Amino acid sequence: MITEIIMDKVACYKKSVTLSTDKRVNLIYGLNGTGKSIISDYLYHYKSEESKEKYRHCEIKGLSDENVLVYNQNFIKDYFYELDALKGIFTLSKENKEAETTIRKIEQEIKELNNEKGKLNSLNKELQAKRENIKTEVWKIKTEYAYTALKHCFKDLNKKEQLLSHLLKIAKPPTQPAESINQLKKEAEILDEGTKCTELPVINISINDIESNKLFQKAIVGDENSAISELIKKLNNSD
Q1: What are the tens digits of pLDDT across the range 197-236?
Q2: Structure pTM?
């Protein structure tokens, strides 16, 4: 049986206060803030690790192996779980409370994940819609120039997705090209209008007659100070 409770250096007990009794039933009463709740809290955590630090200056005398039972707000928090939807409805036991808390937490996480999934699906739809819009705008360029002198630029690009994928692979130049589309179109038209040159006639040269000419039999030594003297030496062709 508890015979003495010493409270010191905790909450409102700035100085040591001793409650002594020799009765089995005791009633502690007082105004708010006079230290009633801290006594019940000390009894509730009497053998816990929290008690060793928080209540290191406090002491309970008279106890041997008795089991101290305390019903206070700490007990309610540990062993009762109030459902959010039904105020005043509780589940009993500490294990049930932990399970209910875990379930509610997981349900909330699932709800948040579903919300994120909905946002992601919405963003994917928005992205797909923008991609389709880009493909349509890019395709307009082909329809405008595919039957002009610039048609060679669209060779083998017969589908919207092909054209878009092709353009995405081309790196954007750091600066805007100097030539406009109209200038490129005019240059392409000039190339299309060009005529094919006729083949050059075959020229028959009698090398033997040239080599046997007396003029080519005389060795000619070039000026070593000329600009091409080094080249003549490398070719070994001074004659």
Answers
A1: 778 888 888 888 777 888 777 776 667 777 788 888 888 7
A2: 0.36
* Cα distance between residue 165 and residue 180, in whole Å: 23
Q: Compute the Cα dihedral for 149, 153, 159, 161 and give only its sign.
A: negative
Closest by CA position to 45, among listed 21, 15, 73, 12: 73
For 29-84, write each residue's pLDDT tens digit.
Answer: 888 888 888 898 888 888 888 778 888 889 989 888 888 888 888 887 777 765 55
Cite the DSSP H helix spans in 19-170: 36-44, 49-54, 73-79, 94-145, 160-169
Residue 65: partners with Cβ closer than 8 Å, 6 or more residues away = none
The three-class DSSP label of residue 61 is strand
Of 72, 38, 74, 75, residue with least CA distance to 57: 38
Spatial neighbors of 127 by CB under 8 A, at least 6 apart, are: none
Q: Are 45 and 37 in contact, with CB atoms under 8 Å apart?
A: no
Cα pseudo-dihedral 206, 207, 209, 214, rounded to 10: 150
